[in-house]
Amino acid sequence: MKNELTHKLLKFIDASPTMFHATASCKQRLEEAQFSFLNPSTAWQLQVGGKYYTTMNDSAIIAFCIHSNDVETEGFKIIGTHGDVPGFRIKPHSQMQTENYIKLNTEGYGGPILSTWFDRPLSVAGRVALKSDNLLRPKTVLVDVNKPVLIIPNLAIHMNRDINNGVKINKQKDTLPILSYTNEPVSTNLMLDLLAKTLNVSAEDILDADLYLYPYEKGMRVGLNEEFISASRLDDLSMTYSGLEAILHASSSKGISMFVCYDNEEIGSHTKQGADSPYLIRTMERILLALGKEREALFMALENSFMLSGDVAHLSHPNYMEKSDPTNPVLPGKGPAIKVNANFSYTTDSDTYAVFAGICKAHDIPFQVFVNRSDERGGSTIGPVAASHLGIRSVDIGTPMLAMHSARELMAVDDFVYTVQAMKAFFSL
Length: 429
Ligand code: ZN
What we know:
Elements lengths: L1 H13 L4 H14 L3 E2 L13 E6 L3 E7 L4 H4 L1 E7 L4 E12 L2 E9 L12 E9 L8 E6 L33 E4 L8 H10 L6 E10 L4 E3 L5 E4 L2 H15 L7 E7 L16 H12 L4 H9 L2 E5 L2 E2 L22 E3 L10 H13 L5 E3 L11 H9 L2 E6 L1 E3 L6 E4 H14 L3
Parallel strand pairs: 1-2, 4-13, 4-14, 14-18, 15-19, 16-17
Antiparallel strand pairs: 2-3, 3-13, 5-6, 6-9, 7-8, 7-10, 11-12, 12-20, 16-18, 19-20
Helix pairs in contact: 2-5, 5-10
Zinc ion binds next to helix 5.
């Protein structure tokens, strides 16, 4: 089971170079499992026993199973994750020429570890807006060039003797990727031509695009016994995949099990498809209305709901143990970490900690605790944002990993599998 799950995770990550593709990958699995698509702009007809999903902006997705009609007292069990990844977005009018090199102008998205993007074959994927008959609704399609067309070369050590002593990296100068070189005058937009060719449309029909660079190399298992997963986008596609497995196998008979994968966590969640939006609560209200209930039912259900906010956690690094909390090391093979913070960068409190710990204990799943060193600021995640919109009980958990926000991250196979088990157990309640 372990090998099969890991194989499926790596396939999911490879098929999901951007938040748009992550949403499409989830959609595909849900369709295969007979979840019905709900069009957000038409009235919903829902039934107890039904399985449904809906999307926002092609980049966020909510899937749910209605196990019983008594949602007021049995509530929603929600798993939340995110599908966006730190990296680079290609700017408008991006083509630049330096002597006979052709390179692209890009802008950072979120907080990537910049040095990890050098000397890697890169490809391009995203969403393209095409001309349609309706000016208010351009046709949107996903695109994945799926070839190593770009690279950001390092400056040789001979020209930068300080390269191993900590060098500042400037996103407007140092990280612009090379696309080609030419000894002929260039009169067209080469990236636009590539998109048109990839999509088999005319370049004039392309109005705009949300395009991101991504590392072309595939994920793989590493270690003496292949005990680690080395891949891009483990933050947060490993948790997203775990949540997806859980909703596909939701075995509860109570209330509603719900999975939401948000966009834009890496930039603070403040978009219509991010956690800081009415997307989730509005969907919950629509579900209850479609089940023939009054609005009051929503407020009762919220009181009885619970959220598992799933975003990766930090493993203690063997070369930098001093960077981790002195009494709460997080180690590979010891299970998902419950994330705790006195200032509530995470939603966990003793009440919700006890819920997740109880689930793990009841199913013999190991778990550990992550807290920042008191002099390290740490990050935050979707949990606090989403839970403050909903006003529900919530716990933050994460599969622990090394090299978070690197172009290639590292996690233990066992911890990924334990997280899937814990999420499945949550959706059996
Ligand atoms: Zn994350």
